[in-house]
Specification:
The structure is a homodimer of 150-residue chains. Chain A is of the alpha+beta class and 150 residues long. Chain A has a single domain, classed as Winged helix-like DNA-binding domain superfamily/Winged helix DNA-binding domain (Arc Repressor Mutant, subunit A), CATH 1.10.10.10. Chain A contains 4 helices and 6 strands; from the N terminus they run ααβααβββββ. In chain A, the strands form 2 sheets. Chain A has a 3-stranded antiparallel beta sheet with strand order 1-3-2. In chain A, helix 1 packs across helix 2. Chain A is globular, with a radius of gyration of 17 Å. Bound molecules: manganese (II) ion (2 copies) and zinc ion (2 copies). One manganese (II) ion binds next to strand 2 and strand 4 of chain B. One zinc ion binds next to loops of chain A. Chain A binds a DNA duplex (30 and 30 nucleotides) through helix 2 and helix 4.
DNA sequence: TTATCTTTTGCAACATTGTTGCTTTTTTGC
DNA sequence: GCAAAAAAGCAACAATGTTGCAAAAGATAA
């Protein structure tokens, strides 16, 4: 028998897809579920691996693209030139993301977290510059990797 | 006759390379000069183009790597998965970068600027997280693209 | 300046990542 | 179930990045 959480996540995945007017397909269900089961963010490569040999690489690319467009997931810029993706928790939708939170990359375990409660600060820019979106990525040691005596 | 600024930049480039204990080669001189002549940041591809067909792609990759290692240039993370590089203005050196400034990417012209005078803010993290380095990238409209009446 | 040693370059081959057009398969709405 | 629409898979390709190695260029000291 399937584990109960898997079923819950499958239902949740289907709900999320329907909410966004997307048709329900195996790959979309599976990829949304991966995000739901996951604490941190996922890179394209992670998804390919975690989904097994099940889906074509192109399908994964296109699925992620659709999810970003619809405001289901957002991208996280990192220094190592690999885009990570994470679920949008805010009221993002088609054509407008509102993820104004800080991201954290752990030096030790490599996991990327959305710190949903830490909002991006106001940045005072020099004269002539107009700010749109602000991205903040903090690198350091995460709560799971913290040693008791450090 | 060569333009005077070119000569100045060549001397400056040589000085910078010597300072960092690097041997003086055509490609290193040329690439440092490109950075000196440039207001914004450069991506790998920009450098290949601007250097003409002069240098091998591999040489450019390796040169940029050496420059980053030596603290001559630093990388700038961007959302579009393309690493940009810019000269370090601070006291960076081999094995330690100290570029704590904000970066700005113009939506309109695409140029990436180092805002050397805008320092990265302190970020208050949730319990258990320890901050190392903080990266801030602001996206918006730059001083050159600003229209008079906006 | 030349000889020698060391470093860097260019080349070739390869790996990884991302893109596009087209055909087949799946999903949806009836 | 059936037809139309959407998505997936496949193949071919483009772009980007990496590695090993031989040739060339740079540094050093006689
Ligand atoms: Mn996030
Ligand atoms: Mn900078
Ligand atoms: Zn960690
Ligand atoms: Zn601009």
């Amino acid at each position: 028998m399937q584990k109960e959480t898997t079923i819950i996540n499958e239902n949740q995945a289907i709900r999320l897809l329907k909410q966004n007017g997307l048709s329900i397909t195996d790959s979309r269900k599976k990829i949304v579920q991966l995000f739901l089961e996951q604490d941190g963010a996922l890179a394209h490569g992670d998804i390919e691996k975690k989904a097994g040999e099940k889906f074509d690489r192109v399908t994964v690319y296109r699925t992620l693209q659709v999810f970003v467009d619809k405001g289901i997931i957002h991208t996280i810029p990192t220094a190592d030139n690999s885009i990570r993706y994470a679920l949008c928790k805010d009221d993002c939708g088609e054509g407008h993301h509102h993820d104004h939170h800080v991201h954290f990359v752990c030096d030790n375990c490599g996991v990327t977290y959305c710190l949903d409660d830490v909002v991006t600060p106001e940045i005072k820019l020099p004269k002539g510059y107009t700010a749109g979106h602000v991205e903040v990525v903090v690198e350091g040691v995460c709560k799971n990797c913290k040693t008791p005596f450090s």
